[in-house]
Design goal:
The chain is mainly alpha-helical. Among the domains are: 67-266, Cytochrome c-like domain (Cytochrome Bc1 Complex, Chain D, domain 2, Orthogonal Bundle), CATH 1.10.760; 299-424, Cytochrome Bc1 Complex, Chain D, domain 2, CATH 1.10.760. It is built from 19 helices and five strands. The strands form two sheets. It has a three-stranded antiparallel β-sheet with strand order 1-2-3. A two-stranded antiparallel ribbon has the order 4-5. Helix 4 (67-78) packs antiparallel against helix 9 (228-237), helix 4 packs across helix 10 and helix 12 (285-294) crosses helix 18 (427-438). It is globular, with a radius of gyration of 23 Å. The N and C termini lie far apart (67 Å).
């Protein structure tokens, strides 16, 4: 027991000693070169597994969820009842038909004339702005390894507990960052809450002051509990009598949404996960070569490490700026800097996870790239990629293309603050990297995602992606 206790130490030194003691394998950081017609060297898998071990990479975990909360969460996720004008659901921007994103660089929120449409079929409402950041995929968010949410980690968990934009107004009962995250899209006017001028039938949610988050959550819960089927579902999910559901708060809706996301959107059977479980044949030779680059020469794992393939830290990659931004004065998005207490966060955004990454474009915090290879190659020489960025090749929406920032002062500031070094890879090595990224996608993903869509929701509203009403 003492030996295994020693070997299970997580520091790089102890982990390196374990590998050396048990296998004698050299700690390789260069990919194994294999000529045409030559059989791969026998120690390729040993070298790759050494690197995976040193980077704390394990198969994705799949925590169990209560079935009644999952069923409630699925209904809530797809029900436009959660938006002020009943024109937007969680699924509007995170749709199963679009790999849990929206296929847009920057999303279209409330006030759209195309209620019910998804992806490229959605039109921005008159006088509306685009959502400032790309709608991220939401795979595997139930993992116990998550300690933050959103591109700027404005929802995070440390030793003191949950840190969120609500501060002390956050209600009790939320345990994970995923649960806490589900509290906030409904409070955003652009994303879900809407404006008083939008709804034909009035919008009691929009009438509440922006900073009165508890009142917004209470109003949404009152709306939900006015529907008999939701009352029953909440009672089942929290094992209480139906007459007692009025004691519940919106945090109980958020917990259910999180339970559904964790249960339905955790995919743990990608070829890479199968390889991590010990099946050497799960990855092709090119994918293994790409993995050696990823965890070695290319340096990808400096940020994309661990089980989630993200260290959840924040970096400036000199991504082109466009869209409305987050700062009302400059129109720029300052990233992590916008979260109080992060003076060193300028232009830095959280490293995204990578499972199913081949399906989740456009990529980057603002969807700057609609081609995964281009997104990968940006990392190799970020300064050059920024200065040579061509929005016509990457951004579908013409209005957005016209907003790309070309101010030399801004470009110079982005480059001066770069957090990534240049890397030289051959074209073949880039393709190997892409082969590895392909191995992170779960089999038959699209068909499996379709099965998550319910036939109906308790409000009786149409489900986005099934009926589009211009």
């Amino acid at each position: 027991m003492k030996l295994f206790s020693f070997l299970n130490g997580r520091s790089a030194l102890l982990r390196s000693m374990q590998v050396l003691l048990l296998s004698g394998v050299a700690l390789a950081t260069r990919p194994v070169e294999i000529r045409a017609g030559e059989k791969p060297k026998k120690n390729l898998d040993d070298q790759l597994r050494t690197l995976l071990f040193l980077h704390d990479v394990d198969p994705i975990d799949n925590p169990p969820q209560d079935i009644n909360r999952v069923l409630l969460g699925r209904a809530l996720f797809f029900d436009r009842i959660l938006s002020g004008n009943m024109d937007t659901s969680c699924a509007t921007c995170h749709h199963p038909l679009l790999a849990m994103g929206d296929a847009l660089s920057l999303g279209v929120g409330t006030g759209t004339p195309t209620v019910g449409a998804i992806g490229l079929m959605r039109e921005k409402g008159v006088g509306r702005e685009f959502i400032p950041r790309n709608a991220p995929e939401i795979f595997n968010r139930g993992s116990v390894h998550w300690r933050s949410q959103f591109w700027d980690s404005r929802v995070e968990k440390d030793k003191t507990g949950l840190l969120t934009p609500a501060g002390m107004k956050l209600p009790d009962g939320l345990d994970t960052v995923l649960e806490a995250q589900a509290m906030f899209p409904v409070t955003s006017r652009d994303e879900m809450r809407g404006s008083l001028a939008d709804g034909e039938n009035g919008n009691e949610i929009a009438a509440i002051r922006d900073n009165d988050l508890p009142a917004i959550w209470d109003a949404l819960m009152n709306r939900l509990l006015s529907i008999p089927e939701y009352r029953e579902m909440f009672a089942d999910a929290y094992e209480i009598e139906p007459e007692n559901v009025d004691d519940l708060g919106f945090q109980h809706a958020a917990k259910a949404i999180a339970a559904w996301e964790a249960a339905a959107l955790t995919f743990d059977d990608s070829p890479f996960d199968e390889y991590l479980r010990g099946n050497n044949d799960a990855l092709s030779l090119k994918a293994k070569q790409g993995a050696m680059l990823f965890y070695g020469k290319a340096g990808c794992a400096n940020c994309h490490d661990g089980t989630l393939l993200t260290n959840q830290e924040h970096y400036n990659l000199a991504i082109p700026q466009f869209g409305p931004g987050k700062d009302a004065v400059t129109g720029l998005d300052f990233g992590r800097y916008g979260v109080p207490g992060n003076p060193d966060g300028l232009f830095r955004f959280r490293t995204p996870p990578l499972r199913n990454v081949t399906e989740t474009g456009p990529w980057m915090h603002n969807g700057a790239y609609n081609n995964l290879q281009d997104a990968v190659e940006h990392h190799l020489d970020a300064a050059k990629a920024l200065r040579e960025y061509n929005p016509k090749h990457q951004i579908t929406d013409r209005e957005l293309r016209a907003t790309v920032v070309n101010d030399p002062a801004v470009l110079n500031e982005l480059v001066d603050r770069l957090d990534i070094d240049k890397v030289k890879l051959s074209g073949g090595e880039v393709h190997d990297l892409l082969s590895f990224l392909g191995s992170l996608t779960a089999p038959n993903l699209k068909n499996r995602l379709v099965l998550t869509i319910p036939a109906t929701v308790p409000s009786g509203l149409d489900i986005d992606g099934t009926i589009a009403t211009p």
